[in-house]
């Protein structure tokens, strides 16, 4: 009994010592503190940690004290855009377990807005946010403004921002050059001042994934779209967490990029399953289906058949022109569109969204 009490006092002493050290070094907040607003699919643990891996997941808050760090664990290597007062402050690399990442420094101690955006996709790593650590005088405060619109994008490498930061089409892909913030999806959301979620994975299709040896792949975006995590098929997402106003689907490039191509019946079946799942979970919201720029097969009739067969007045089809962007100057790394290519896609899509949603066009710059 005495030995047990001694152990208990030692443990309490260690815990108090750690807490005092944390208080001395800075003000500590849990990952799920109410002042922090996450947008995207996340999983909160009993200890207050918040885990996620989908590309584009972001958190927003306000803070004082001039410094902010985050204690995280990472399964691989992820990259994040850090915005302070709406401007890019830095890009940070996240890796390791229980690692303290310094996000913001060198600014005044007044209140500032903060946005941390996962710019790389789940294939490269899942992040768990344990704590936010501020300076001794620092505090977190909830963002007062809440956006009233939400767009969900379901797609592949184009939605992820694969190679967007690359400088030349022959440049090999690196995780560092993936930047979802410069995609058509993020531009569309910014133009309409909308929250967004990106449910996207490079190389994935509706019926068939890039380079697969079979016409119909085992796991495609019709399956991944149901999950909390991109890379974990066991945790199913609770679709009651949020309901977007609009869903934009940009799939098909990978289905037909290499042979064997799925049959028309196989592709339309998979695509209609995606639409049915969206109807089941989100109800009667508009869905915009995009016919991609870089289709390797003349299958626009497949998309037309899908629209005719579902016979849903709130399912729309928009065909992007095959010559929409220049195959040299508008490309980033690995022959994927760069910033200018994505901007042209956004400029094509925005007016159509205005038509189907009744959202006014403004003089806001598309960027």
From TrEMBL:
N-terminal signal peptide: 1-20
Record keyword Disulfide bond present: no
Record EC number: 3.2.1.4
Residue ranges annotated for the SGNH hydrolase-type esterase domain, each copy included: 153-312
Alphabetically ordered keywords of this record: Glycosidase, Hydrolase, Signal
Top-level class of the enzyme under EC nomenclature: hydrolase
Segments forming domain Carbohydrate esterase 2 N-terminal: 38-144
Pfam family, one: CE2_N
Gene Ontology molecular function: carboxylic ester hydrolase activity; cellulase activity
Family annotation (PANTHER family): ESTERASE, SGNH HYDROLASE-TYPE, GDSL-LIKE LIPASE/ACYLHYDROLASE DOMAIN PROTEIN (AFU_ORTHOLOGUE AFUA_2G00620)
The protein, known as: Endoglucanase E
Source organism: Bacteroides cellulosilyticus
